[in-house]
Amino acid sequence: MNLFKSPRRLHVNGVAIWAPRLPGWDSARAILSGSAAAPATPATRPSPELLPPNERRRAPDTVSLALEVALAACRNADLAPASLSCVFSSTHGDLAITDYMCTTLASAPAQLSPTRFHNSVHNAAAGYWTIGANCARPYTAITAGAHSFGAGFLEASAQALSSGENILFVSYDIDARGPLATMAQSSGLLSAAVIVGPQRGPRTVADLDMTLHAADGLVASRARAGNAALVAGNASESCLPFMEAIALGGARDILCLAGPNLGLTLSLRPI
User: Fold this and answer.
1) 105: CATH
2) Long-range contact list for 177-180, CB < 8 A, 24+ apart?
3) pLDDT in the model for residue 117
4) Which of 98-107, 151-160, 194-203, 232-241 comes out lowest in average pLDDT?
5) Whole domain around residue 163: which residue ranges?
6) Is 123 helix (H, G, I), strand (E, B) or coil?
7) What is the residue-averaged pLDDT of the chain?
8) Is 1 part of a structural domain of the chain?
9) How many distinct structural domains can be found in the chain?
10) What is the mean pLDDT of residues 247-251?
11) H or E stretch including 225?
12) What is the rounded CA–CA span in Å between residue 251 and residue 243?
């Protein structure tokens, strides 16, 4: 069932991605389109310049990933970070800190680090971003399990359409640790950012029409096998077909799942 009477028109005004074998949009675009090979030596983790050096070293992987692509997307779009409301989505949040806290509480609860506890909340990355970017605009931090990228994109799109403004959307996940890895499965590091708006911006990369479907048996789009292997196992890997479509160019339809029986068809026309 189509939940919209007609497709909703939006514009992709900025993009960014970071993974150990896709270290930044410029290189990722060439890799995903097949015009360049992935680096033989994967990067370790990003070092977001938005944070002071000391904070940069201490920041957890989730924060480093999210801030790296958030700033890169703003620069790609030629938009001021402080001007954008934002949506942050993560399937599991910071699994490394969650594992640390569970282990410490079970063995030596008095030794629990207040700093790590502070970084454990699901909106930590969004909070770091608004402070580092001096952004007083509203932010939203959400999760929808395996459908977090699609749900986050839907939320950002809805905000863009209702407010008439550009919205920054950031999706990120890291590798699972300890006993939690048997339940909350994720491997490697991956983050992606998209700026969507109801009007074209200074550096629009694609126009899109969005349709929302409610139906059983919806099957999400998949990236090419070679590209999918670059981020395989990460809980945010569903972002890759969208990024691949932008990199490949040409008109393409991408189906993202925003829930068990909820799908977004994104008809992309890269510019």
Assistant:
1) 3.40.47.10
2) 177/95, 177/96, 177/99, 177/100, 178/99, 178/102, 178/103, 179/99, 179/102, 180/95, 180/98, 180/99, 180/102
3) 84
4) 98-107
5) 8-270
6) coil
7) 94
8) no
9) 1
10) 94
11) helix 225-228
12) 13
